[in-house]
Amino acid sequence: MYSELRIAILGGTFNPPHNGHLSIANTVLQETDSEEILLIPANIPAHKGSDSATHWRHRWKMLEGVALEHPGFTADDCEIVRGGISYTIDTIYDIMERYQPSGRLGLVIGDDLFDGFHTWKSVDELLSLVDLIVARREIPTKNHVSYPHVHLSNALLTISSREIREYVRVRQDITRYVPESVERYIRLNGLYVD
Fold first, then answer.
1. CATH 3.40.50.620 fits 7-157, yes or no
2. Which of 52, 152, 153, 183 has the fewest Cβ atoms nearer than 10 Å?
């Protein structure tokens, strides 16, 4: 099914998925030759602490709903199914085996992660397998990246999942920050209120 597609991967905790994630994913489809973007929620992130005790089922359901609403987006639960710490190199091999993409995979990372990118597991092997796509998260202009890459011109949206969780906790409106399906899921399931 996917053998003729160019695939890019956008991973994260997605706790919750928000409009910044969607902006990056849409820009990848517009500015690269990727035809499908896989949204992959981490089981246990390797490069940041667990930002909440939100069960993976809730993060998965929200992300699955988002993917269903956007052509070209696919939610993939391989890191959750695999369990343990989510290492990108393992995910790349998993996706290559299951999807059999034509050409190299695109790997999307935010510029906020780039300073520590050299510490990622098997980084040289990883770079031999993917085309690196750098999205703007924190810096309004392009930052210096020492690895071959494509720089996206996505809108710089400063909202974070952590801030959205705090807004929910203090009963502030989040409708401008998240898709309607995510806002509804959070409300109906009473997430982030404790």
1. yes
2. 153
